Protein 1
Amino acid sequence: MRAAVCSAYGPPDVVAVQDIPAPALGPGQARVRVGAAALNFPDVLIVADKYQLSVPPPFVPGSELAGVVAEVADGVTAVAVGDLVAGTTFVGAFAEEAVVAAESLRPVPDGVDLRHAAAFGVAHHTAYHVLRSVAGLAAGDELVVLGAGGGVGLAAVQLGAALGATVTAVASSADKLAVARAEGARRTIDHRAGDLRAALREQLPGGADVVVDPVGGDLAEPALRALRWGGRFVTVGYASGTIPRIPLNLVLLKGIQILGFEFRGFAAHAPEALAQGEAELADLQARGRVVPHIGATFPLADTAAALQLVADGRAIGKVVIDVNDDVLGC
Ligand SMILES: NC(=O)c1ccc[n+]([C@@H]2O[C@H](COP(=O)([O-])OP(=O)(O)OC[C@H]3O[C@@H](n4cnc5c(N)ncnc54)[C@H](OP(=O)(O)O)[C@@H]3O)[C@@H](O)[C@H]2O)c1
């Protein structure tokens, strides 16, 4: 099969498409012929060996996919050959075939194409649990989203608006902010245009209830300062490359809660909240209430270029890789 292979750790251009043997099917797994896969910032980190977990090269990166089930292991009943499915895996999605835990696959809802099904794997699930279970976002809340043009950020904009919050989107370009506004942001701030703290104070004189931060770096503290008394700040990731340090007096003075979210830990320690959020999110997807914004699509041969777009912070919403054209047409 053709697959995008990371043969040695490094920048995105270490990834090249090769012919390699299809992966063996293990117990409890299903083989999926991939129609589309989608990128996430952690893919860039895994290829560079800068993620929390290392995968020894050679390996096929890619953590979210949609396609058709081609084979199931003995005893698997969760899915059957011929099912259209979407799912997540740690690595392995940027290939014509991927083997995935059958229990992790979910049916593609009627009316959802495989590109959008693949793009709904990580960012929207992350954003939904962050907003609902961690931040306790309620209708009428003021929500500030950093990195609002990126995968997790734009998903948080869409879902925050769908949950009835008033969303302020913060990003680095007019293009990203235009998309954020189209996806539900009421207010937008270009943090490169001036002082973020002053801009937030001007736009939110009463303060924010919740800040979602997938970026970190220099943006975190001014965003935290924009919270009103009792506000919640959720740290989700550090796409800027810098883990921020927050003066604790800011937390003390306003009774602020600083909260963290990491998917594996959340899934392991809060299974009931996970299940409830997953069901609510599946319902939003099936009803067409939330549709991922696909900002760019690449063929499998250009996986390195797709990774570079994400690595540079230039992606808007989700970046998708078309894999098997015949499956995409299903
Ligand atoms: N906790 C979890 O379970 C979980 C799950 C998924 C992802 N994450 C993390 O969440 C973060 C965002 O992931 P994503 O998939 O949404 O990424 P993405 O689509 O690439 O978006 C990241 C955003 O970060 C900003 N940014 C600032 N400096 C950057 C730089 N040097 N390089 C790249 N981006 C930069 C950009 O926004 P501006 O417009 O402001 O520049 C960009 O839009 C990552 O750190 C990822 O590891 C965490």
Protein 2
Amino acid sequence: MCSGRVDLAFVLRAFSKGMDGVFIGGCRLNECNYSTHGNYDALNMVLLCRKIMEHIGVDPERLRIDFMSSAEGMLFTEVMSEFGNKVKELGPLGKAEGIDHNELRSKLAEITKLVPYIKVVKNEKLASRLENPEEYDKLFTKDEIDKLFSEVISYYIDPEKCQACMTCAQRCPVEAIVGAKNQIHVIDQEKCIKCGTCFEACPPQFGAVTKISGEPVPPPIPEGERTIVRKSKER
Ligand code: SF4
Ligand code: SF4
């Protein structure tokens, strides 16, 4: 119902399913019936998404947002035919940009996996209210987006420190932590959405979850070596 409900992941999904263009229509800015003003969220998401598209080599003109009321049928028709013509002019997604179909799909899949992380890191800007269109292009810069992806944070459980208290596994929102009683816990990097909950949840006296930025994550400890031998039991 609200353009603010259009998640970054929805737009990326449309492109990964082969759509050549995505249009989002929102109510006029400052005319939202609710205090939430979700159309500003949609605008910021589009500005971010367009920069991400540039980063992966996709023409950002393939994504457009416009604001209008339900009484402006003529305007809607004009905007849609203009956008339709633009997309036709750009040609098929990927082909026109010279990116191989599979390469584009894997780039989009990689970015989609990072959506929760991107939303956490860019939370403040995504919630901001821009006063005029001159500010649109400055909200997210190319350098900022390049940095965002070159310094992606990963989380790793140090097997030497983990005490198998299970707190992190219970709090992880996507069940990305493999572990059991008396078993050193391990993060499944394929499932992890980099929310940082485990980092916050691991008791300070253990401090077993490490934040890694821009570096490869060490391989997980082999399954057969995960049993924790408590000092008292050793005795
Ligand atoms: S950062 Fe930790 S809590 Fe968040 S998804 Fe990854 S493993 Fe789970
Ligand atoms: S919260 Fe920390 S000590 Fe407890 S299982 Fe997770 S990583 Fe290990």
